[in-house]
Amino acid sequence: MTLVDTASRHAPTDAPLIAPLVERWSPRAYDPTAELSDDTIRTLLEAARWAPSANNVQPWRFIVARRGTPAFAAVHDALMGFNQAWADSAAALIVNVAETVDETGAPRRWATYDLGQAVAYMSLQAQHDGLHTHQMGGFDADRLAEAFGLGAGLEVISVSAVGKLGDAAALPEPLREREVAPRSRKPLDELLIAAA
What we know:
4 strands; oxidoreductase; oxidoreductase activity; Nitroreductase; Nitroreductase-like
């Protein structure tokens, strides 16, 4: 088994950060035998529950699909081919859904932003607990909405793979290369528009 040296995946930061931020990365190689307990899933969702949101509306909803279930197959089948090539080994696929309108039909302008924060909280909790997550945007949202009976005002924004790190050698070649490529980010100065 060729596991990636996780220390080599730590973010080369320009300022000291907490460990889950430095250690978090998005692998594609998952252990196909690892499972998530009910308590583990509950902890991940609890972390998401405590994310901040505009007016404390909490416009996030989740579909948790464990590997080996019909729900997992439905989510996996809705992924684009590139993601299907590796996501089948994740212990769970979590569909991240934003409630984009309120009970009167008015748009919730910040819903997708708030959902993003909830997913970030979940990702950091997963990292803290020895798990890894990988966010995906390559999926058929209409297919997922139909498969899970999502009504109007519920929009699938992303899908998260969750699980234990697996064997990078099991990935197809282009993905294996990306799995071990050096991590990089734009310089902070390039991201900063203004500072007073």
